From TrEMBL:
This is glutamine--fructose-6-phosphate transaminase (isomerizing). Keywords: Aminotransferase, Glutamine amidotransferase, Repeat, Transferase. GO terms for molecular function: carbohydrate derivative binding; glutamine-fructose-6-phosphate transaminase (isomerizing) activity. Pathway: Nucleotide-sugar biosynthesis; UDP-N-acetyl-alpha-D-glucosamine biosynthesis; alpha-D-glucosamine 6-phosphate from D-fructose 6-phosphate: step 1/1. Its EC number is 2.6.1.16. It comes from Rhamnella rubrinervis. The keyword Transferase applies. Coiled coil: none annotated.
Amino acid sequence: EQINKGNYEHYMQKEIHEQPESLTTTMRGRLIRGGSCKAKTVLLGGLKDHLKTIRRSRRIVFIGCGTSYNAALSSRPILEELSGIPVTMEIASDLLDRQGPIYREDTAVFVSQSGETADTLHALEYALENGALCVGITNTVGSAIARNTHCGVHINAGCEIGVASTKAYTSQIVVMAMLALAIGGDAISNEARREAIIDSLFDLPNKVREVLKLDEEMKELAKLLIAEQSLLVFGRGYNYATALEGALKVKEVALMHSEGILAGEMKHGPLALVDENLPIFVIATRDACFSKQQSVIQQLHARKGRLVVMCSKGDAASVCLGGSSRVVEVPQVVDCLQPVVNIVPLQLLAYHLTVLRGFNVDQPRNLAKSVTTQ
Ligand code: G6P
């Protein structure tokens, strides 16, 4: 039923707009709201026999490529916070190039939409040889990664056809937030935090429905950016990954140079690029990094940067610091799920830029949905 475009012109457009439904399917049967005496909890059937081993591991290492890597990166802080276990990140090809250390005491989590990406699959073979517990997070039941890992979670986002991954990305983040909750267990010290995340998960499809209303606004923004050579995207904390993923979307489909930049590194190079011509997208939604992002915005203004700022609803005045930035206001959710909401306007921007620039949305030149050769 998902293989046609329905009322949409392109698969990517359809997949962006069906995220409220795909997220609902991802969470179905896995969140327990709890009665009066039962705490809210998460059930991930594919992991239940391995949770004890995961909790005892010396390190959790995420391994993936492209968008799947970015989804894992966005989930790193909540996994560190709830599990207390060191979490490291590996791009599959780089791990293989270095033959980096993987130990028996590691839990290696392989994230892949298709479950067939050659680099990720080879990294899985390598981790198995080294004795790590291997967990798969894929969208494809019966895929090589699903079959060859010890245990795992299907993201159940439904078939994704557009080469640029959209709905799989948001479902991956939700699965990894649930993974963090499951590994974190039921420690009393985390109870309020856990409940806030679970409440926010229940409400997330509604918030994504709300942010999708920015479609026209992002089309207008795309019209302004249509002839640009380059777009920088600044983010930090939970939204460093959003900056990387937003830039990847623009690069992949709109064929425009775009770079995701860790805002904390701004002074160590990127600031040299800032002038009155280069468009810069700054993600500054409310979280523990907000005041640092305000100071980044001030510094970019001081260099006459051409800014588009993404902020939480009602925060426009707090981010238009002495300049005439364009503002994109998004609904606020709990910090670790904010990347799910924040990526949507960037997906819409990349989509409209591609259509306006006359490029192939669903089959960008030179790219494949699943890269099965190394
Ligand atoms: C290709 C696709 C990307 C995808 C990456 C990883 O490069 O074009 O959209 O993110 O592979 O794919 P996977 O199936 O492993 O998530």
